[in-house]
Design brief:
Chain A: Keywords: Metal-binding, Thiamine pyrophosphate, Transferase. Chain A: It comes from Oceanobacillus neutriphilus. Chain A: Belongs to the transketolase family. The complex is a heterodimer of chains A (278) and B (315). Chain A is 42% helix and 12% strand. By secondary structure, chain A is an alpha/beta fold. Chain A has one domain: Rossmann fold (3-Layer(aba) Sandwich), CATH 3.40.50. In chain A, strands 1-2-3-7-6 form a five-stranded parallel β-sheet, with helices on both faces. In chain A, strands 4-5 form a two-stranded antiparallel ribbon. In chain A, helix 1 crosses helix 3, helix 1 packs across helix 4 and helix 1 runs antiparallel to helix 10. The two termini of chain A are 24 Å apart. Chain B is an alpha/beta fold. Chain B folds into two domains: 164 residues, 3-Layer(aba) Sandwich (Rossmann fold), CATH 3.40.50; 124 residues, Rossmann fold (3-Layer(aba) Sandwich). Chain B is built from 13 helices and 14 strands. The longest helix of chain B has 15 residues. The two termini of chain B are 26 Å apart. Chains A and B meet through helix 5 and helix 6 of A and helix 4 and helix 6 of B.
Chain lengths: 278, 315
């Protein structure tokens, strides 16, 4: 889908936000805050960057996507639905019995989920394994992983990081959704991450910090790293706003894992739609 | 009818069996991989590394990442064996194996040396007495410990050929090679070593040789013993246990906590299926300590004498 324009991608991101919020509203359960902070780069990945095929979700040469911060499943589900991996009606079944849209991503139940996630800190290791397999098999696919800033408190993130560097996995591209909040409060109060860019750099990653809500910057950065075969894994640290696009959710800890009521939902959809025409 | 080797037995650690078999498997199938967490020399994966270096990964002292990377590798068709000590392989990485291997039902094997009390002089920190119980409780996982070198080689090969998560446990120390190298083993099928009708003894791993010696003593006293090697405790061979309930008396023997291991697995079936008494011989819900392996077995009553006494006490 490399011919899609920046403007079309921006519109697509708003649609994904609306779908993610709608899912959580229908389910009356789920994680809107982090879904909205991750919406722009998830859109860029699914609608321009990643080489995936909704008709053949297990195609061996596809790019992989690992949502290590698995609780923001609604934004990935929105991408899968809009991209045609599952019928659009599926969005009304989030967290329901037998739904492909389990509370957290489940690779056994949902096409397009490359591995189940949900327990923080673990998905990045899986992404490293996938990227290593690509190198061993001399395949050209890339692996995209999404981790959170709160999640970077998990020790296993750093175990995975050192392995990606040891095995020279330049086919691994990590997005760090640095929205500054975690479930109990601001990340810098709960357990300060200090300088995440420097930390990853010290481990041997190529790092870049960008505005995670600027589609232009996201695309530019993806273009920059696209054909770089320097033996170094990449991390794009994204300055983001938890709840981005819905005024009353933005930067509010309480919207980490809470569903909107009817009035809030209507307001959220209206605000997101306005973003569509901004 | 099974033909066993005769005493004096050759002595070999079952971790050696893993090392020999995995190297063979690696040569035969380029998708077989080993993920080490620094203790490859001790876990006997060095031969694999030297034979098929491209199929070998060493993540250093980072077991949680080893399990997660193995999960990622397996999504592409690789068959990774994560190799470490049983205490780390069952507990340090337990959640990673639950979330990223068993929950998505991926083709990853956890292959661990130093099972039970066999890392004897390393002390209680390194003696895995709860590992099989941990994994027995996780859906999709199979849990296996071969009794000797040949049984372990066959079971490692079967694990490689069976899709899905498998936990394999090996001894650090040498144990008698009781089986003929042509003996076949099937995951989930108990190996009947002796048939009898006065008492059933069900053992696994490094205690099978003790149970065998006890059975021979009992036979010399005129007691007819049914002896099973229950190398797989999950899925457990229900049919074989139901056969034992026809005798009505079962002694279980294991180098594992008597909670949640072989004795518990047998008792689960007995509770549902038969009017039978079960006496469990194994680690008495206590941590180990540095001591000779035989001393640790003795402290816990995992001895030929205790098996004989317990069996006689039931008839």
């Amino acid at each position: 889908m490399s011919n899609i324009t920046v403007e079309e991608l921006k519109e697509q991101a708003i649609q994904l936000r609306q779908t993610a919020v709608t899912m959580v509203y229908h389910a009356q359960s789920g994680h809107p805050g982090g879904s909205l902070s991750a919406a722009d780069f998830v859109t860029a990945l699914y609608f321009r960057e990643m080489n995936v095929n909704p008709e053949d979700p297990e195609w061996a040469d596809r790019d992989r996507f690992v949502l290590s911060k698995g609780h923001v499943a609604p934004i990935q589900y929105a991408a899968l639905a809009h991209r045609g991996f599952v019928p659009m009606e599926t969005v009304k079944t989030l967290r329901e019995y037998k739904s492909p849209f389990q509370g957290h991503p489940d690779s056994k139940k949902c096409p397009g989920i490359d591995i189940s996630t949900g327990s923080l800190g673990q998905g990045l290791s899986c992404a490293v394994g996938m990227a290593l397999a690509g190198k061993l098999d001399e395949k050209d696919y890339r692996v995209f992983a999404v981790i959170g800033d709160g999640e970077a408190q998990e020790g296993q993130i750093w175990e995975a990081t050192q392995s990606a560097v040891k095995y020279k996995l330049d086919n691994l591209i990590v997005f760090l959704d640095d929205n500054g909040l975690q479930i109990d409060g601001p990340t810098n109060e709960i357990m300060p991450n200090l300088d995440l860019e420097k930390k990853f750099e010290a481990f041997g990653f190529t790092t870049k910090r960008i505005d995670g809500h600027s589609m232009e910057e996201i695309l530019e950065t993806l273009d920059e790293v696209k054909n770089v075969k320097d033996g170094k894994p990449k991390i794009i640290v994204c300055n983001t706003i938890k709840g981005k696009g819905v005024s009353f959710m933005e930067n509010v800890v309480g919207w980490h894992g809470k569903a909107p009521n009817e009035e809030e939902y209507d307001k959220a959809m209206e605000e997101l739609a306005r973003g569509l025409n901004a | 009818m099974i033909v066993l080797n005769k005493a004096p037995y050759e002595q070999k650690a079952t971790r050696e069996a893993f090392g020999d078999e995995i190297a063979e498997l690696g040569k035969e199938n380029k998708d077989i991989m080993v993920v080490d967490a620094d203790i490859g020399g001790s876990c006997k994966t060095t031969k694999f590394m030297n034979t098929v270096p491209k199929q070998h990964v060493n993540v250093g002292i980072a077991e949680q990442n080893a399990a997660g990377m193995a999960a990622g590798l397996s999504t592409t068709g690789k068959i990774p064996f994560v190799s470490t000590y049983a205490v780390f392989g069952s507990l340090r990485m337990a959640e990673q194996v639950r979330q990223e291997v068993c929950y998505p039902n991926l083709n990853v094997k956890i292959a661990c040396s130093h099972g039970g009390l066999t890392p004897a002089n390393d002390g209680g920190s390194h003696q895995a007495i709860e590992d099989m119980g941990v994994y027995r409780t996780i859906p999709n996982m199979r849990v296996i410990m071969g009794a000797d070198y040949h049984a372990t080689r066959k079971l490692v090969r079967q694990a490689a050929e069976t899709y899905g998560p498998v936990y394999l446990r090996f001894t650090r120390d040498k144990v008698p090679v009781i089986y003929n190298e042509n003996e076949e083993f099937e995951i989930g099928k108990a190996k009947q070593i002796k048939n009898g009708n006065d008492v059933a003894i069900i053992a696994n791993g490094d205690t099978v040789c003790l149970a065998l010696e006890a059975a021979e003593i009992l036979e010399s006293k005129g007691v007819s013993v049914k002896l099973l090697d229950m190398h797989t405790i999950k899925p457990i061979d229900r049919e074989a246990i139901i056969e034992c309930t026809k005798i009505g008396k079962i002694v279980t023997v294991e180098d594992h906590n008597i909670l949640n291991g072989l004795g518990s697995a047998v008792s689960d079936v007995v509770a549902e299926e038969g009017n039978t008494k079960v006496r469990r011989i194994g680690v008495q819900d206590r941590f180990g300590e540095s001591a000779p392996y035989e001393k640790l077995l003795e402290i816990n009553g995992i001895t030929v004498e205790n098996i004989v006494d317990t069996a006689e006490g039931m008839i």
